[in-house]
Fold Lysozyme.
Amino acid sequence: MALGVSAVALSGTSQLAISAVPISAQSQVGGTQDGAGYDLIDPAERRDASDLTASDQLIEAMIEEEGVRYDVYRDVAGYPTVGVGHLVLPEDNLGMGDTISHERALQLLETDIGKAEEVVQRLIGDLAINQHEFDALVDLAFNVGEGNLSESESPRLNRAIAAADYDRIAEELNYTTAGNRVASGLVYRSERRQRIFMASDYRDPREV
């Protein structure tokens, strides 16, 4: 039971309607409301990661990459997965072949994105970052998990972050293996992630 991307809509505060149309690079403009209205925040301005959340552009790109399925299946690494790339956990009480509702798929996605945001905040610490750089790292955390971003598993990435070397950080966003073999989908996803980080370009490289 696979669901087309165009049929998905996020619940919660963003109310984002997901479209299957390729995403072009756009600026994300956020704001904080005060008595006089909205003070616009430059999305290219680097600031503390605690001030940022994943953009709608990123969430749409992630859904394009992951797809959406209501039935529990095995991903390319052989792990039980459901919804939008959600790794099935013991507390989910799901087994192979079980199905979930549309609403639960959305709840799992929002929870997983929130966890990925927290992983990035811990990973980069005090490093100032802008929206598209944060987005790329959220996609990385969502895709590979916090354990693979540790100092022991990703020493070059952690050194680049400690040195505030943004070019080197971009170089270390390339994760292309699953189950000890290169997966073509991860090759394209890594390219997309690097383009997001370096140029705020959210488009699918397969279509560029």
